[in-house]
Amino acid sequence: MAAAAAAAALLAMGGCAAELGTSVKGVAKATGFATDSPKSTEFVAASRPARIDYMPVGIAQPARPTPPKSAAEVQALQKNLEDTRTANTEAGRSAQAAGQTPAPTPAVAPRDHVAPSATD
């Protein structure tokens, strides 16, 4: 019961503190419920840019560094990609057919032939 009353008092004081210009975090920090953020380690601070440029909302994006392709250029690129796909498909079929070739049968030595001995 006392804990609930203390929590209610903290919430009420937090609301008043916010009106007086201090934050709720300041009250929580004073009572030991909040801490300061730790300082970034050296390699983290060094890897961050000094200024982060976020894309503003409601403003047009900057112009593209390269102009967009014309319809004819897009069609030529599409044809090139389709030709490459067709060539790759044919090469795959050729490789698959080569992989399905049965293994050759080993040569059989005639039985009447006697191998020369080491003493001959």
Automatic annotation (TrEMBL):
Query: Please, which domain of life does this record's source organism belong to?
Result: Bacteria
Disordered as annotated region, ranges: 59-120
**Which positions make up the signal peptide?**
1-17
Q: Which UniProt keywords apply?
A: Signal
Spell out the Low complexity composition-biased ranges: 95-109
**This protein's name:** DUF4148 domain-containing protein
Source organism (scientific name): Chelatococcus reniformis
